[in-house]
Each structure stands twice: as structure tokens, then as C-alpha cells.
Design a protein that fits this description.
Radius of gyration: 19 Å
CATH architecture of the largest domain: Orthogonal Bundle
CATH topology of the largest domain: Fumarate Reductase Iron-sulfur Protein, Chain B, domain 2
Number of strands: 0
CATH superfamily of the largest domain: Alpha-helical ferredoxin
CATH class of the largest domain: Mainly Alpha
Order of helices and strands: HHHHHHHHHH
Low-confidence stretches: none
Oligomer: single chain
Distance between the termini: 32 Å
Strand content: under 5%
Largest sheet: none
Mean pLDDT: 85
Structural class: mainly alpha
Length: 187
């Protein structure tokens, strides 16, 4: 992917650093983030390259990289970084900007799954696996896929039939309200 310098007054680097609350100039390209990343070999640009591209003044073409939709947010990169750069927050900022600008559209069903997951958290205060999976399978038309695993998951206590209880739903509603007000600014 070719790097094109952003011609606007506010560079992508500055916006990402503000949204993610990180200082990317602290990265000296040791590549520990990329070496530990479980999806680095599945994308065209691993974490260290994304940071370097930002440092070099990459523009909106960076919002089209596959890593922003493939990142697991496992924070292995953060744990391995000697300068404690929170790359998962960088990815979240890039993802938010890509959606906001309409620059890139995620492939596959990940956005649908994320929306369903968050809807159950919003409703119950925590994820309700059974509802999330049933809704996902209905919307994707994959009802029969993995059905043999359902009884095993129930038997092992990995999934509950009843919705979760005991969560502070008021606190969760405040978190969602605050997130909507901040619109991904990280504040």
C-alpha cells in the first residue's frame, strides 16, 4: 500500500493519538507488537507497520487496512511493548474514523456480531450468550451450523439458558450513554 501524506491541517497521526490517548513517537520499531500479534500473518500491514505509517504521515488510505477489522483487541501488543503503547486503542481510533468517514467497510459478519453482542450487554448488563448466538444465527442464516456443540456447551456450563442477572444495569446504561456522547474520543 502506498503512503500518501495527508494534505489537511490536522494529520491522521494527531487525530489517532488524541482519540487513543497514546504517544506514537515513543515507538522505536522493535516489532515486538507484530511478533506477538496473533493475526499479523493474516493482514497486509502488522501493528508495527501501521504505527510507522502513521509516523510517516499516512493519510486515509491507512483506514482501509485489513488489520483494523481483524484485530482481536487481545492487547498482546500492549503487553509486549517496552514503551506501553496501547495499540488496541490505536486500532479502535482507526476503526471509528473509518466508519465515520465511510472510507472502509468491514468484510464478513464481524460488525453484525459486534452490534448483537453490544445490544445484549445493553439490555442485560452483560452478554447473554444464548440470545446473542440465536440472533446472530438468524440474521446470517446459519442456524444449523455448530448446532452439535450447543448441548455440550450447556452440559459443561459454558452457556446459560436464562439471561444473566446481578449486573448493575444502571452503570452499564451510563457507560453506553457516555460512549455515545464521546463518540469514540476516548475521553
Amino acid at each position: 500500500m502506498k503512503i500518501t501524506k495527508e494534505k489537511t491541517a490536522e494529520s491522521l497521526l494527531k487525530v489517532v493519538q488524541e482519540k487513543a490517548d497514546v504517544n506514537l513517537s515513543a515507538c522505536y520499531q522493535c516489532r515486538k507488537c507484530s511478533i506477538g500479534c496473533p493475526v499479523a500473518d493474516r493482514v497486509e500491514s502488522p501493528p508495527s507497520e501501521i504505527i510507522r505509517r502513521l509516523q510517516l504521515g499516512a493519510g486515509d488510505e491507512l483506514l482501509q487496512t485489513g488489520l483494523i477489522w481483524t484485530c482481536l483487541s487481545c492487547e498482546t501488543c500492549y503487553a509486549r511493548c517496552p514503551n506501553k503503547i496501547n495499540f488496541a486503542a490505536v486500532i479502535d481510533a482507526l476503526k471509528y474514523m473509518a466508519v465515520e468517514k465511510g472510507v472502509a467497510k468491514p468484510e464478513g459478519d464481524a460488525p453484525l456480531f459486534n452490534r448483537i453482542f453490544l445490544d445484549t450487554v445493553k439490555s442485560y448488563g452483560r452478554v447473554y450468550d444464548l440470545q446473542a448466538i440465536a440472533t446472530y444465527k438468524l440474521k446470517t442464516g446459519s442456524m444449523k451450523q455448530d448446532m452439535d456443540k450447543f448441548p455440550v456447551m450447556l452440559k459443561k456450563g459454558k452457556m446459560a439458558i436464562l439471561p444473566p442477572s446481578g449486573a448493575d444495569k444502571g452503570m452499564v446504561k451510563r457507560i453506553f450513554k457516555k460512549a455515545a456522547q464521546n463518540k469514540g474520543t476516548g475521553k
